[in-house]
């Protein structure tokens, strides 16, 4: 009945208050006049990505919200550049990749906690930014050598990977505190599934050196689970959630089972062979051909015409944002002096983009299929798909995956929360920070200890239900539909629900006497072939062969019987069933006819 020591990632959620939250800031991320910004909780959620970062805070209503920097950017480039005595951090540093690449630092997040000898040669010898070197005075420590003075004869400045991360995190903290108007009392930061214990320790050290009070290092899967608990969803509260994070350098997939606010990691994978870089490469090739067609000037990309390549990379994100935001009009790309003094203006519509992106979408579908197979989960059993990262905004991605993999069923279509993929992680961290900040040291000391322990450890061990517990009602309620296959079992407590647990189910009986069998059940998927309806405007007199389509359904079968309860109703009230599993794994069942003087029974 009960599986001991299941590996469960803690991801308690913050329950949103009634009604929609009142916006506290304008489009640029600045507080609106008369807003409740002064009443914000002094905590911050930070999504620290390898290419981009984002910051979120809590509104006075307890809702998480991403904020913009003083430049009006919510997606903050993880770039640091030195130009003479000036230091550029974030989006301001992006143009420096074109004219000052040797003094511009990128990709430092993924190098945290690694020794210089552990870094691949491709990561060391970047052609678009400052290369990674071994620190001259600290053996096996990765660093960068940059010119940080107007005096060209001055010795170069050596900056370790940890120092670069600290400098960048300090700028994020400053932006958050400028918005809050007060020092931040703590923050929750994300880390990717690929991070080792040493890398998490290095992230914590870098954050604390930046002046951040680290409340928790939260893995990205947990941050997504928390963020999705805040928004309305058609998915059940106990659900299987697929998280798809298509980033600038990798594709991270995580299959999560959420039970009672705790997220169980079923399977995960990460691939550096698939990323938004593949989409960018395809789009750049499309626009480069268009430039050559219009101006009769060939482009040798990516290495021959490095300047043109960098310009495409710099301006392409704006085109992709426009393409994601608008369904009808084309998105344009305009670059001054792309090559030999020739300007370029081109455009692309969603249909053309969909055609170009299909090979990449196909690779993503194959990766998702492999992940589901490793967890023995059918695509139709996925209740919710959450898109994360900049790639999650690409038009047609979810539709393409659903068509290729068959998410959901005709009975239960797959759900996707209404969340901006680029904001999910930061918002989840902000909600988690608010939860931890609100815990009392005296009354909630044990809970706080769990989060402190989670700073570096992967999982917290809990006991959980090993099989779904459901009820089989005879005769079947009048409202129940007879399943096309399997048995009419109603799941009450789902598999992997942490214990102790209590769930209830209410139904309208079909007769005065009912038998309720409590069972352990297993879910499975069966396929039915249905004949497609003939088109009304089909004037062909010849008898066409009827087309069939395979439709998937989720159903249940009984693996064992726990016991039966018979109830003879005294009136006409509905019947309420409550199943409880104690911390020790003991199961109890209470059945009651609703209404005064109703019949009762127990198991």
Topology:
Blueprint: E1 2-10, E2 43-48, E3 52-58, E4 64-67, E5 76-77, E6 79-83, E7 86-89, H1 96-99, E8 104-106, H2 121-124, E9 132-134, E10 142-146, E11 157-160, H3 161-180, E12 186-191, H4 197-209, E13 214-219, H5 220-228, E14 239-246, E15 251-259, E16 262-271, H6 276-295, H7 306-325, E17 331-339, E18 342-348, H8 350-374, E19 384-388, H9 397-405, H10 424-437, H11 445-453, E20 460-465, E21 468-474, E22 489-493, E23 501-507, E24 513-531, E25 548-568, E26 575-581, E27 587-593, E28 600-602
Parallel strand pairs: 2-12, 12-13, 14-19
Antiparallel strand pairs: 1-16, 1-20, 2-3, 3-4, 3-5, 6-7, 6-8, 9-10, 10-11, 14-15, 15-16, 17-18, 21-22, 21-24, 23-26, 24-25, 26-27, 27-28
Instruction: Give the rounded overall mean pLDDT.
Output: 85
Strand content: 25-35%
| Model regions low in confidence, pLDDT < 50 over at least 5 residues | 1-37
Alpha carbon gyration radius: 28 Å
**Largest sheet report:** 6 strands, mixed
N- to C-terminal separation?
A: 16 Å
CATH topology of the largest domain: Nucleotidyltransferase, domain 5
Largest sheet strand order:
19-14-15-16-1-20
DSSP helical segment count: 11
CATH superfamily membership of the largest domain, which one?
A: ATPase, nucleotide binding domain
Instruction: Assign the structural class, choosing from mainly alpha, mainly beta, alpha/beta, alpha+beta, or little secondary structure.
Output: alpha+beta
- The general outline is globular
Number of domains: 3
CATH class of the largest domain: Alpha Beta
How many β-strand stretches?
28
Helical percentage: 10-25%
CATH architecture of the largest domain: 2-Layer Sandwich
């Amino acid at each position: 009945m009960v599986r001991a020591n299941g590996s469960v990632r803690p991801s308690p959620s913050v329950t949103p208050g009634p009604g929609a939250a009142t916006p506290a800031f304008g489009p640029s991320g600045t507080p609106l006049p008369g807003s409740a910004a002064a009443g914000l909780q002094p905590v911050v959620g930070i999504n620290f990505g390898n290419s981009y970062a984002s910051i979120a805070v809590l509104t006075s209503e307890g809702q998480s919200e991403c904020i913009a920097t003083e430049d009006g950017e919510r997606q903050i480039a993880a770039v640091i550049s030195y130009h003479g005595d000036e230091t550029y951090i974030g989006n301001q540093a992006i143009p420096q990749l074109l004219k000052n690449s040797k003094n511009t630092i990128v990709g430092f997040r993924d190098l945290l906690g690694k020794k210089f000898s552990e870094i691949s040669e491709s990561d060391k010898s970047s052609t678009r930014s400052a290369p990674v070197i071994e620190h001259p005075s600290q053996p096996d420590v990765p660093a960068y050598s940059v010119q940080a003075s107007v005096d060209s004869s001055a010795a170069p400045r050596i900056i370790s990977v940890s120092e670069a991360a600290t400098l960048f995190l300090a700028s994020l903290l400053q932006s958050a505190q400028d918005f809050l108007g007060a020092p931040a009392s703590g923050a929750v930061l994300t880390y990717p599934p690929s991070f080792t214990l040493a890398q998490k320790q290095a992230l914590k050290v870098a954050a604390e050196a930046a002046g951040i009070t680290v409340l928790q290092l939260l893995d990205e899967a947990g941050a997504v689970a928390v963020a999705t608990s805040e928004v309305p969803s058609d998915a059940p509260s106990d659900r299987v959630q697929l998280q798809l994070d298509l980033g600038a350098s990798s594709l991270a997939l995580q299959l999560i089972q959420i039970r009672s606010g705790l997220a169980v990691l079923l399977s995960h994978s990460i691939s550096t062979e698939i990323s938004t870089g593949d989409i960018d490469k395809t789009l750049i090739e499309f626009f480069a051909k268009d430039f050559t067609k219009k101006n009769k000037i060939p482009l040798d990309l990516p290495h021959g015409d490095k300047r043109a390549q960098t310009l495409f990379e710099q301006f392409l994100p704006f085109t992709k944002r426009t393409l994601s935001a608008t369904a009808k009009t084309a998105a344009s790309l305009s670059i001054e002096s792309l090559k030999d003094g020739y300007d370029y203006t081109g455009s692309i519509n969603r249909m053309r983009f969909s055609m170009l992106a299909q090979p990449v979408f196909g690779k993503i579908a194959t990766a998702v299929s492999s992940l589901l197979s490793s967890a023995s989960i059918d695509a139709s059993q996925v209740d919710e798909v959450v898109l994360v990262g900049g790639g999650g905004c690409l038009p047609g991605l979810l539709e393409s995956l659903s068509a290729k993999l068959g998410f959901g069923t005709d009975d239960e279509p797959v759900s996707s929360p209404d969340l901006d993929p680029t904001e999910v992680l930061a918002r989840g961290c902000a909600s988690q920070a608010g939860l931890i900040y609100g815990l009392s040291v005296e009354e909630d000391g044990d809970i706080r200890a769990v989060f402190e322990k989670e700073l570096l450890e992967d999982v917290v061990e809990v006991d959980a239900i090993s099989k779904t517990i459901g009820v089989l009602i005879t005769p079947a309620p009048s409202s129940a539909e007879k399943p096309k296959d399997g048995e009419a079992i109603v799941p009450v407590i789902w598999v992997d629900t942490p214990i102790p647990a209590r769930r209830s189910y209410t139904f309208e009986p079909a007769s005065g006497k009912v038998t309720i069998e409590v069972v352990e059940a297993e879910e499975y998927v069966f396929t039915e072939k249905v004949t497609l309806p003939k088109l009304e405007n089909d004037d062909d007199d010849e008898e066409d062969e009827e087309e069939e389509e395979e439709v998937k359904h989720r159903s249940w079968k009984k693996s064992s019987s726990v016991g039966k309860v018979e109830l003879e109703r005294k009136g006409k009230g509905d019947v309420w069933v409550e199943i409880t599993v104690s911390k020790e794994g003991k199961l109890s069942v209470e059945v009651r006819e609703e209404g005064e003087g109703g019949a009762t029974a127990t198991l």
